[in-house]
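User: Run a structure prediction on this.
Assistant: Running it now.
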Amino acid sequence: MRELRPDFLWGGAVAANQYEGAWDVDGKGPSTSDMCTNGTHTTPKRITREWEEGTLYPSREAIDFYHHYKEDIALFAEMGFKVFRLSIAWTRIFPTGMEEEPNEAGLAFYDRVFDECLKYGMEPLVTISHYEMPFGLTKAYNGWAGRECIDHFMRYCQVIFDRYQNKVKYWLTFNEINAGVQSMGNFLSLGILNEGTENFVNQVDIPQLRFQGLHHQFVASAKAVKLAHEKYPQFLMGNMICFITSYPFTCNPDDILEAQKQMQMTNWFCSDIQVRGEYPAYAERYFEEKQIRIHMEPGDEEILREGCVDFYTFSYYMSTCVAKNPTDEASVAGNLAGGLKNPYLKASDWGWQIDPKGLRYTLNEIYNRYNIPLMVVENGLGAKDILNPDKTVDDDYRINYLRQHIEQMKEAVADGVDLMGYTPWGCIDLVSASTGEMAKRYGFIYVDKYDDGTGTLERYRKKSFYWYQKVIQTNGAEL
């Protein structure tokens, strides 16, 4: 059977720091992403410790969902969304992360957003922390490098769980938590800002500090899951992994071992802990070779065991090739990590290799490893869209990309994978997390906003909008 389950959760995904804007409205404090300037495909964005007059910080206005949420959710409902993946901006609730009492205006905003979703029968899928945290915690503790962040995060979780317990059923703890295994994940994911770091792509990296910070996130994630299971049994708690499928570049055993090692530490490490509840054996050798020693407090291992997630979610955009000695081969760009060019694949405008069959392979690998329900919560094509004079966009390239990936999802379901849903990334155009651009557009909805910060913020339906509407109407039968 290649049919998707009748209650399949079709929708789309966004993140507060890339689409919400209103960065200092109604008591919101600055987040780590509010301190990032704009960049391009070739010029990395910068991280500033203080606000620089006359510098563009794209996340601060983004596409101003804060003042357009009713319009946007109505557009999602018109497409037929069953689920809307979004994140809560931590600094809307706790402006510095260290307050004892939450900011009521921030809580009330998400009440309005969730009510609007539920009005249309759309389930919110909420990421608790999506590539942002209070910049106050970066200044106080160097982000997640400080164990103190666990308690601050838990206070935040307790407040939002209690407040939205009757409105939100599906929760993800940390977005692409495995970003923390890469040096760029220091500030992006962990809020770690080491002395001398300014360039977002080439950050000053202290692996010992980074993996310790990641351990603190594991403990915080497990504690949040444990709290939900004990007090809010109606919740389903998920993890979220940036899955970068790696193939050996050749059948040379050296390349095969190298690809296996990359798959382990890039893709499996974090989810082995979050799904199975313990550090995997292969990590011991990696830590030994890198001279990393994870400091655990008494009780940490028990918390990890008790806080295993209910379902597994991931982003999938591309695959890469891996070689033991890659010096002579052409390299390609990627989401978090690039790799070697696969001669059998084409690439996007940003050099990301397009591999729909890799999604089927990946779904099978994940499901056969963990045997819990899966959800593809990010997938899509970043491209330079052209707005026609009649305010339409002919984005057949996007339709083709998504069609091919949905076809492979259906093949994976026929293979026996339990797939819950699909939320393509950036269902409305928003700010790129890696470069701070608007030009890299993913959405079914075009937003009149540009890399220099100008634009009317008007929303327009692209050709893919109507295509996806039909896909949802037919539960993926008509592609």
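The first helix runs from residue 16 to 19.
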